[in-house]
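Consider the tokenized backbone below.
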């Protein structure tokens, strides 16, 4: 599937630039920053327990990417988002459904994943000096 970016290139670049400054010890926070910057929302908007569909879908994507790109457990991810582990599982399932049925979110996840991958490739190994 050919993704057409729905987000201005400057916003995409900003998300990548801000993520590059992220500490490797806080990978879930890095995912949150990337998602917030990509979608143009604040961390507060993402993490507040609002049920507005446009925010909830972005929260599902953030939880899904945190699960996919970090080694954190479900309870650890849930703690960051204010969820229990079953809510993290539910969010991941809903995000997978969105990715399968909504081209906008499928492309968004691919682009955010690309930002996260570029960031991790540029981080030095802990034993390198």
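A designed sequence for it:
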């Amino acid at each position: 599937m050919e993704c057409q970016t729905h987000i201005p290139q400057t916003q995409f670049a900003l998300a990548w630039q801000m993520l590059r400054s992220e500490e490797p010890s806080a990978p879930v926070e890095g995912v949150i920053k990337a998602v917030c910057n990509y979608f143009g929302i604040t961390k507060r908007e993402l993490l507040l327990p609002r049920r507005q569909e446009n925010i909830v879908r972005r929260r599902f994507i953030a939880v899904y990417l945190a699960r996919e790109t970090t080694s954190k457990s479900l309870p650890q991810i849930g703690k960051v988002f204010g969820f229990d582990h079953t809510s993290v599982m539910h969010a991941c399932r809903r995000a997978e459904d969105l990715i399968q049925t909504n081209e906008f979110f499928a492309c968004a996840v691919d682009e955010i994943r690309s930002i996260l991958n570029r960031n991790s490739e540029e981080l030095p190994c802990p034993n390198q000096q």
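The CA atoms of residues 13 and 38 lie 9 Å apart.
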